[in-house]
Amino acid sequence: MKDIWPEIYTPIIGTEQVNYMLETYQSLENIQKEIAQGDQYFILMADDQPVGYTAYRASADEIYLSKLYLSERTRGQGYGKQVFAWYDQLAAGKKIRLNVNKYNQRAIAVYEHQGFQCIEACQNDIGQGYIMDDYVYLKDLS
Fold first, then answer.
1. With contact defined as beta carbons under 8 Å apart, do 110 and 5 qualify?
2. Are 66 and 21 in contact (CB under 8 A)?
3. What is the pLDDT of residues 12-53, one digit of tens each?
4. CB 137 within 8 A of CB 98
5. pLDDT value at position 26?
């Protein structure tokens, strides 16, 4: 699924930062570490083929949706809508929070269409001189 990141993020943050983030945050080692800390990862399948992945971390009052990526060939076919319906069921009585790059207009439009509201902007130093320049979105299902 490493083909998804370059397609989405290279136009926004450039090849070097995409490569750094893939090596640092999407490495098998990092994913295993996140799973050991309680994150839940899922490969999204359609017709027995992987079409994306999602991950979240749950707390008593919130689901932090850390990853939701679909391959280009499957976007617009209702898979995202199905995943959001699943998250809504999972988070019933809670809130769903996520971060999205400020310049990822496609994702922002999807999140807002799904009922998420922007609650703040944030910048996080992720090392090597790179910054994650994000909005924080929230959907209150409590």
1. no
2. no
3. 999 999 999 999 988 899 999 999 999 999 999 998 999 999
4. yes
5. 87
Q: In what order do the strands lie in the sheet with 40-46?
A: 40-46, 49-58, 62-70, 95-101, 130-140, 117-127
Please give the single-letter amino acid code of residue 53.
Y
Indicate left, alpha or beta for 28 from its phi (over 0: left) and psi (-120 to 50: alpha): alpha
Helix axes 4-13, 15-25, angle to 10 degrees: 130
Contacts by residues 67-75 (CB-CB < 8 Å, ≥ 24 positions apart)? 67/41, 68/98, 69/1, 69/4, 69/5, 69/8, 70/4, 70/44, 71/1, 71/3, 71/4, 72/4, 72/7, 74/46
Report the C-alpha gap between 73 and 141 in whole angstroms.
31
In angstroms, rounded to a whole number, what is the distance separating the alpha carbons of residues 85 and 115?
11
Give me the phi and psi of 15, to 5 degrees please.
-60, -45
Q: Which of 75, 101, 121, 109 is nearest to 17 (CA)?
A: 101
pTM of the model: 0.91
